[in-house]
Write a structure and sequence with these properties.
This protein is mainly α. It is built from 7 helices and no strands. Helix 1 (4-31) runs antiparallel to helix 2, helix 3 (66-88) runs antiparallel to helix 6 and helix 5 (121-144) packs antiparallel against helix 6. The protein is flat.
């Protein structure tokens, strides 16, 4: 169990990590016109990074097993990266392509599944596998409605970028399957 002092130290590390990550685009803006963030971009990125860190701290406290924590970390970082890339450049076409709103549905599936399962290992595994299926379905939908005719997205690009996330969600789900049934979450529910 984390004491208040340990939690404070975790929050300080999250704050420092968030600032360090946000320094990257801030510094890049000084040397390149390719990076053009406004104040809102920094706020959104800061909230995403901080929320991911805080979420990891609180959810990882539910189990003392390292495999649970690794699986959780992969799930959270994959979700963060999906939201970040989708918001920054879009997964299909540009970030202004309305099709990319589907990916927020993929994230919503994972969030709902995680809460329904109360972050238990078997439920998390199922939620991540369902999320991987939802991510896979975006490939089919994109191709069926002709998103590959978009100048910015070929069939190969659509498949590769989505398979990347399908793989991450599947790895995380597989790791949750490997977590022992003796996890502290299941003990508390018994």
């Amino acid at each position: 169990m984390n004491t208040p002092a340990k939690l404070s130290a975790h929050f300080i590390r999250i704050g420092i990590g968030t600032v360090l990550v946000l320094l990257i685009p801030l510094i890049a803006m000084q040397f390149s016109n390719e990076v053009n963030w406004d104040f809102l971009d920094f706020i959104i990125a800061g909230v995403l990074l901080s929320a991911t860190g805080v979420g990891y701290i609180f959810i990882s406290r539910l189990s003392d097993q390292i495999m649970y924590r690794i699986a959780l970390g992969i799930a959270l970082l994959s979700t963060l990266f999906l939201v970040w890339v989708n918001g920054a450049v879009g997964l299909v076409g540009s970030e202004n392509n309305d099709f990319n709103l589907l990916y927020f549905g993929v994230v919503l599936i994972l969030i709902i599944g995680a809460f329904i399962s109360r972050f238990r290992t078997k439920g998390m595994a199922i939620a991540l596998f369902v999320t991987a299926v939802a991510q896979t379905s975006t490939i089919l939908v994109a191709i069926l409605i002709g998103q590959h005719h978009n100048a910015e997205s070929s069939v190969i690009e659509i498949i590769l970028v989505n398979v990347f996330f399908v793989t991450l969600f599947s790895i995380s789900g597989g790791l949750f399957c490997q977590v022992s049934d003796e996890s502290s979450i299941e003990k508390e529910d018994a």
